[in-house]
Design goal:
Radius of gyration: 22 Å
Helix content: under 10%
Number of domains: 2
Order of helices and strands: EEEEEEEEEEEEEEEEEEEEEEEEEE
Strand content: over 45%
Shape: flat
Structural class: mainly beta
Largest sheet: 15 strands, mixed
Length: 318
């Protein structure tokens, strides 16, 4: 076991004092870790970053690059896990007041891959991977965004879970939970006060944007000013549930408050969309297309809207 504690100082255009960075590295086995940290000083004061990397196993790799006021924790227990953290901000350079960015990656198993990229102030990202061949990618650009990805399967699985979260602006929240293998989730939120909650518990399940397989299930719940969900499922016995609830401030905008698109191809598929807003004056738009690959009955679609509504349901070979 090798433990290395690194501290250093860096002053850039220092107005008030100095910036101090700290790195804590613990390794057991043959692993690789690369940590780069740059402190900053500006009108608000001096800022530093903290990194904690703990690796136990063989061929684990951790890359941490931080500029400003950031905190990163990486824990790897297993073989051939990859963690990549890139954080810039936390020092108020992008917004009115500084707020530290925080990232946490926990990997237990083999061949897991995580990437966190945060730019701004007050962003928080957590990735927990337990099992094998899971992949997570979280990108946040703005302020006070939160992303949580939990992936759990068997360490021997060749095909793991995949989750990608991309949030831009502020006060967005995304939570993705994936159980078993071959789940796929792609969450993209651009705006303010959006929230996405995705749960996947079956093999070859799919949520938000794309997936293929059998017995898929997708659940997306969004509450905020401007909600958008796009679901595509290929296979049989797919279930898609999208619930969107717009807040009071969303009615001040000119674009639709809630927008949902569902595309399903296969047999015995079901789509359920619920859209509403405060005082029932939200602007809602729902578009559902279901194609039965063999012809005959079996696909089911339900749309419930409260507000200024537009809904289009197309069923082919149904």
């Amino acid at each position: 076991m090798r433990k290395v504690i690194l501290t250093g100082t860096l002053s850039m255009f220092a107005l008030l004092g100095f910036s101090q960075n700290m790195s804590d590295l613990v390794q057991a086995g043959t692993n690789n870790a690369d940590v780069t940290q740059n402190g900053t000083s500006n009108f608000y004061g001096s800022f530093y970053s903290f990194s904690d990397v703990d690796q136990d196993g063989v061929s684990n790799d951790a890359q941490v690059d931080q500029t400003g006021s950031n905190s990163s924790v990486v824990f790897q227990d297993g073989d051939a896990n990859v963690a990549d953290v890139d954080q810039v901000g936390g020092d108020g350079a992008f917004f009115v007041a500084p707020a530290q960015q925080v990232s946490t990656i926990n990997q237990i198993g083999n061949n897991n891959d995580s990437k966190i990229d945060q730019l701004g102030d007050g962003n928080n990202s957590i990735v927990d991977q337990m099992g094998g061949s899971n992949e997570a990618d979280a990108t946040q650009d703005g302020r006070d965004n939160t992303s949580t990805i939990n992936q759990m399967n068997n360490a021997a699985d060749i095909q793991g879970n995949y989750a990608r979260v991309n949030q831009v602006s502020r006060d967005n929240n995304s939570d993705v939970d994936q159980m078993n293998d071959a789940n796929y989730a792609d969450i993209s939120q651009d705006g303010r006060d959006n929230a996405s909650n995705t749960r996947q518990t079956s093999d070859d399940a799919s949520a938000a944007l794309h997936g293929s397989g059998y017995l898929q299930r997708n659940i997306v719940v969004q509450t905020g000013r401007s909600n958008f969900s796009d679901v595509e499922q290929n296979g049989d016995n797919n279930l898609s549930e999208v619930t969107q609830d717009a807040g009071l401030l969303s009615i001040l905008g000119g674009s639709p408050t809630n927008e949902a698109t569902v595309l399903q191809t296969g047999e015995l598929n079901s789509s359920d969309i619920t859209q509403e807003g405060i005082f029932t004056i939200a602007q809602n738009n729902a578009n559902v297309t279901q194609t039965n690959s063999v012809g005959g009955s079996g696909n089911d679609s339900s749309v419930n809207q409260a507000g200024i509504n537009t809904a289009t349901v197309t069923q082919i070979n149904n």
